[in-house]
Amino acid sequence: QVQLVESGGGLVQAGGSLRLSCAASGRTFSSYAMGWFRQAPGKEREFVTSISRSGGSTYYADSVKGRFTISRDNAKNMGYLQMNSLKPEDTAVYFCAAGRDSTVTGKRITIATIGSWGQGTQVTVSS
Predict the structure, then answer these.
(1) How far is 34 from 116, CA to CA, in rounded Å?
(2) Which residues pair with 123 in a beta bridge?
(3) How far apart are CA 61 and CA 48, in angstroms?
(4) Dihedral angle at the C-alpha atoms of 72, 107, 9, 117, nearest 10 degrees?
(5) pLDDT score, position 110
(6) Cβ-based neighbour number of residue 68 at 10 Å
(7) Do 22 and 37 form a contact (C-beta atoms < 8 A)?
(8) CA 63, CA 59: separation in Å to the nearest integer?
(9) Sign of the C-alpha dihedral, residues 104, 105, 106, 109?
(10) What b/e readout covers 2-14, taking b as 16+ CB neighbours within 10 angstroms?
(11) Tell me, what's the pLDDT at 102?
(12) Under 8 Å CB-to-CB from 70, ≥6 apart: which residues?
């Protein structure tokens, strides 16, 4: 499986922006669809966004559509999550994740189809 390490979290005021990065190693990153999930205190981990192996297709939860943008650079083995117009309800630990194998498409990225998780990075949005 691919190993994933997130970075870029922090504290930001409502309306601000953050860019999360996900560094991949271990296997061919381009073989895996990837996604971002988040988990707020006392809540279950939830899907935020996903992207296909090539980067040509992206999918978003309704709660972040129009504000967040997922991207990837397969040549650099990197994934990114640009978060704009942040809201206090976006406060959570954000996890980078990769599909369990190459048959998992970007559209099928769910908690059940994830094979690798990063350690998570905290995002806190103050009001």
Answers:
(1) 9
(2) 10, 92
(3) 5
(4) -100
(5) 92
(6) 21
(7) no
(8) 12
(9) negative
(10) bebebebbeebee
(11) 87
(12) 35, 36, 49, 50, 51, 58, 60, 79, 80, 81, 82
pLDDT tens, residue by residue, 19-47: 999 999 987 899 999 999 999 999 999 99
Q: Is 74 left (phi over 0), alpha (psi -120 to 50) or beta?
A: alpha
- Cα(86)–Cα(5) distance, rounded to whole angstroms? 22
Other beta carbons less than 10 A from residue 100's beta carbon: 15
Contacts of 62 (CB under 8 A, 6+ apart): none
Q: And the tokens for 123? A: 């995002």
Contact yes or no for 5/116 (Cβ under 8 A): no
Which is nearest to 8 in space by CA: 87, 93, 90?
93
DSSP for residue 84: -
Residue 42, classified by CB atoms within 10 Å of its CB into exposed (0-12), middle (13-18) or buried (19+), is: exposed
Largest CA distance in the chain: 41
**What distance in Å separates the CA atoms of residue 56 and residue 63, rounded to the nearest whole number?**
21
